[in-house]
Design a protein that fits this description.
Layout: H1 3-11, H2 13-18, H3 34-49, H4 56-85
Length: about 90
């Protein structure tokens, strides 16, 4: 931690105190793939509700699988659109 960070925190102290606990990092970066994040969060919650543990590796594999599946579906849509156009 350096002095600049401390100065920035002091400037934003009132804003930080009003923020919810989970958002106190004050990040303004939006996720690149919000739909994918929602799908992964839903999947993780379902697994945890059924009493299963979820590891980072499982989350990663699930996310990669979702991306691959969406790529395949998009390719199929393009192919069928080309066939229907004939």
């Amino acid at each position: 931690m350096n002095e600049k960070q401390v100065r920035e925190w002091k400037k934003a102290e009132s804003v930080l105190k009003e923020m919810p606990k989970k958002r106190k990092c004050n990040q303004k970066i939006q996720p690149k793939w919000p739909k994918l994040e929602e799908d992964v969060a839903k999947w993780v919650n379902e697994k945890r509700q059924s009493g299963l543990f979820v590891t980072r590796a499982q989350i990663r594999l699930f996310a990669i699988g979702q991306v691959e599946m969406k790529k395949i579906l998009e390719t199929l849509k393009q192919l069928t659109a080309g066939v229907l156009a004939l």
